[in-house]
Amino acid sequence: MHVIETVNLTRKFGEVVAVDNLNLQIEGGEVFGLLGPNGAGKSTTLNMLCTILKPSSGSASINSLDVEKKPHEVRQIIGIVFQDQSLDNRLTGMENMEMHAELYGVDRKLAKDRISELLRLVELDTRANEIVKNYSGGMRRRLELARGLIHHPKVLFLDEPTIGLDPQTRAKIWDYVQRLSDEEDITIILTTHYMDEAQMLCDRVGIIDRGKIVALGAPKDLIREIGEDVAALDIEDKSRAKEFESAGFVKKVSVGQKVMLVLEDGARTIPKVFDFAAERNIKILSVEVRTPTLNDVFLHKVGRELREEHGDGKDRMRMRMRRGDAR
Q1: All structural domains of the chain
Q2: What is the H or E stretch that residue 119 is in?
């Protein structure tokens, strides 16, 4: 059963198309990653699914509930962990949890047990009575994760859940997400800029660019599509990197700090790379061959060039809040 489904979902800001005829089906219990560069439409998509923004056209449903026609019902079955902190720093961790339970109408007796369970899950049970302003960034993130689960949501949205956290805390958040997927019978939608995070956690990922899905599938399948190996070359004159595109054994060339060649079979092909360079008097200073990762898939699909993008829904909401005209 599709827990989340979008049909030609579109959102425009004036003449700018932030999300362009998006069609997605996400299964129950799936951990789905939505990846893309800044301004690609990730947050706008999440904001529509969470009923924060209305679609310009098309539709989206969660658990068969239309997000535009039945926003209140949708909000009752989703949990959200925003990228920007939304805790009350003047309250304790326990008080933040209790307030959220009250807002969702959770029975007080049931809420007490649920809060204790969730605070143990995120290892904050011994710090529950401390004021949140004294929490570290990682502690606040863990509390927000627990808070988003207070009402047993069917779908949990995690918007950049580990951004700015140290590696140890990131690893702990990964553990919590995996446990939620295994134990809570919950569908998780994750946006992230960390490709290792998506590769580790997600059953499937969708890469969005300029409002459109440009790749969709299990990380291992997407990795397999771009080739068996990637060769990273340091060459004397990078302006000649594109010459490798004419080599029949090279699937794609990308230029960044190094020249990246996507190859069918690195062990068999790398001698051909040296022969090709020698024939054209291209001096190779160093070479490294490795198996591709989801990061290579991302760069393969969206390119390496920096682009001036229009802000997405989150950026526009922040600007409106600063001007005082949010509504």
Answers
A1: 2-218 (3.40.50.300), 227-291 (3.30.70)
A2: helix 108-121
